[in-house]
Amino acid sequence: MQPQQRLVNLTEQPPRKKPSSRPSTAPSSFAHIFDENALPTKRQLLDAASCVVVAENGIRVPFGDLFRDQKTVVIFIRHFWCPLCQDYMFSIANTVDPQVLKQSGINLVIISNGSYNMIKSYRQIFRTPYAVYTDPSSRLYGILGMTLKSVEPKAEQRRGSYVRHGRAGGIAMVIANALRVGMPLWEKAGDVTQLGGEFVLGPGMTVSYAHRMRSRSSHAPIVRVLTAAGV
Prior knowledge:
Organism: Suillus subaureus
Shape: globular
Low-confidence stretches: 1-21, 23-31
Structural class: alpha/beta
Protein name: Thioredoxin domain-containing protein
InterPro entries: PXL2A/B/C (IPR032801), Thioredoxin-like_sf (IPR036249)
Radius of gyration: 17 Å
Distance between the termini: 9 Å
Strand content: 5-15%
Number of helices: 7
């Protein structure tokens, strides 16, 4: 059964507020106002849609084009060297059937914040058929409410079920993967303090699911995200 979905009311015109800098979630006092599941507002969606992401071939694409015509699951990972996000990517590769997504009329894309020159080899690690883009400035992350560091000091101890490696094992995995596919070590991998999240957007300026990471290991289980998308 497809779960009831919440959509942003796009007929309302919220007052434009003075933009503020993206908050760091390190202070514990921020935890009580951080809502990891709050749906983006209309203004946030419009601002996000106008941002530009960079494709594997270096072409700059308006973010809004990715979900203009089709419901799209958008996964924001951290930097390309993050072992925890690589574990999450493996969970997507091992769990999600691209054919099922296609039959359901749903697209899935991955967004990081490093150099687009790392995308090709990164996709090879997981043999993923899904498009990967980068937001080098992390502006898109900030607009959609994703933050830096951890909301709660103890959050790092609560790892998602997708995490397969400890610290040492994760670093070893990343190095082995990089050598295996020939990742360009000289390229910028992204902001190591940036947290990511998961969203279900479109078609058009609609959003039916949002989740923002509270720590480096708190991606939402991909099955939960797909269920919210109606798969």
